[in-house]
Amino acid sequence: MPRCITVAAAQLGPIQMAEPRSVAVERMLRLLERAHRHGAELVVFPELALTTFFPRHYYDSVEEADQWFEAAMPSNETEPLFSAARHLGIGFHLGYAELSLEADETGKIRRRRFNTAILVGPEGDLLLKYRKIHLPGHAAFDPARKVQHLEKRYFEVGNLGFPVIRAPMGTLPGINMGLMICNDRRWPEAWRVLGLQKVELVLLGYNTPSLNLEGRGFQPHHLRVFHSHLSVQAGCYQNSCFAVATAKAGTEDGAELFGHSIIVNPEGEIVAMATSWDDEVIVADCNLDMCTLGRTTVFAFEKHRRPEHYTRITGQTGAVDPPVFERKAAE
Ligand code: ING
Asked: Fewest C-beta atoms under 10 Å: which of 3, 123, 301, 323?
């Protein structure tokens, strides 16, 4: 009996700064119901799905940005999502800005802010939590940029690693599910850490500007989507897993995010793609047995990987100059 699960990407269109969370939650409830009608057993919402992508806005003090964070999950405003999913018997992934009062590595209890994603099971259990590790952009106001991208200002680097859990989902007693967020998808290390935990289904949300806002060089617009798809397709192929990558898209207070949410299989094929930049559900039946071929042949890690030659990957942060060729004087 094939191990099949039907998954959905519940893409969100733009959320304006003025839109309250209740509006976003209402829209997400409609998408959850629509996905359920399509037979989805697991629904993936985007990164920072409850509010506008606020890291594009500069606030003098990070506390001023706390209006965009969730101090509790679920809260009164987000509880309807949890009860609807429980009622429909489906699991869901949700990205949000997490404000937590907890000890840091020095043991000091303080307010900590993370770009967070959770995976909630069909019974409402919190199965997995992940805090974004690869924070793109910058921490200080950057006058060169057309639009700011201040994730390094508002979020700490995640402290939960790249987690995988085996848990019931849909009709299956156990699926190996892992999380990453947005920029993480561009880093093969993130995929491989999940792959080394036998992940079968990677869930990720993203908010990605449709234009290069760095203002530091020309990049054709169509490459923005190409790079996003390339990263997810490569990650799936090289780790023999499925992925659901869900966008928040459209123009938020004048800043454009691209959509093109996708569901990708272990061969790296896009099996479903959103075509709007608005609220849209895409669905795919995933036969998890497809993960077996790659991980028992080309990517049988235990047979073919040579970690003794990979030490630069964890030993170095930045790149170093290579040795320079020097022709040896004739002897
Ligand atoms: N957004 C973008 C992303 O990684 C980005 C930032 C875009 C980085 C394009 C590099 C190139 O998709 C978030 N939220 O990480």
From this structure: 323
Pocket flag, ligand 1, residue 148 (CB < 6 Å):
no
Digit-coded pLDDT (tens) for 224-283: 999 999 999 999 999 999 999 999 999 999 999 999 999 999 999 999 999 999 999 999
User: Measured between alpha carbons, how far is residue 20 from residues 17, 52, 67 in Å?
Assistant: 8, 10, 11
What DSSP letter does each residue of 222-242 carry, written as one string? HHHHHHHHHHHHHHHHHHT-E
Ordered structural domains, the chain, with CATH: 4-315 (3.60.110.10)
* Nearest by Cα to 29 from 78, 89, 95: 78
CA of 303 to the centre of ligand 1 (A): 34
Q: Which two tokens stand for residue 266?
A: 């272990």
Q: What is the pTM of this model?
A: 0.97
Residue 149, H or E segment? none
Q: What is the pLDDT confidence band of residue 217, given thresholds at 50, 70 and 90?
A: confident
Pull the structure tokens for residue 285: 């039946």
Cα(127) to ligand 1 centroid in Å equals: 26
Q: 79-88 and 21-37 are packed helices; what angle lies between their axes, rounded to 10 degrees?
A: 10
